[in-house]
Amino acid sequence: MTSVPRLPDLTFADTRPAPPRVGDRSEWVLGRCWLWCGNRCTWVLWLGSASTAGHYAQFYVCEPCLVRLHHTIIDYADAMREAPTDASGFKVPLYIAPEDPPRPEPINYRRTRHRRPRTALGRLWHRLITGREAPPGRVS
Prior knowledge:
With about 140 residues, the protein is α+β, with helices and mostly antiparallel strands. The protein is built from two helices and three strands. A three-stranded antiparallel sheet has the order 1-2-3. β1 and β2 (about 40-50) form a beta hairpin. The chain is elongated. The relative contact order is 0.13.
C-alpha cells in the first residue's frame, strides 16, 4: 500500500509580507540607526516621529533593525489574533495600564496551532497566549 502525499497546511503557511529593503524605492538616507544595532551609521529609513515627555524626534532605522521590528510587529498581530479570552469571551490584553482593573479569572486558552514566532518578544507573547507563562499581575 502506498501512502498518499499530504498537501501542505495552507492555513499556517508562512505568508508574512516582506519588510522594506535598501534599493526598493523607499526613501533610504545615510544616517544613524536608533534601534538594536548600536547606532551605527548606515542607510536608514524614516519610520515617523517618536515622542516622549514633550519632546519629539524623527525616528530612523537600518535594514537589519527594520527586519527585526517588522517580524516583531507581525508576531504581536499573530499573538493578538490568538489571545486567550476571559469568561465573557473577551480577549485578554497582553498589556494592562496601572489604573486598569485586575485581569479577569478564569482565562480560557485556545488549543489551536500557532505560527512559530520569529522574535524573542514574539516567543514571550506565545508563552502568554498558550498559557505556558502566567500573565503579569499588577505592579505595586
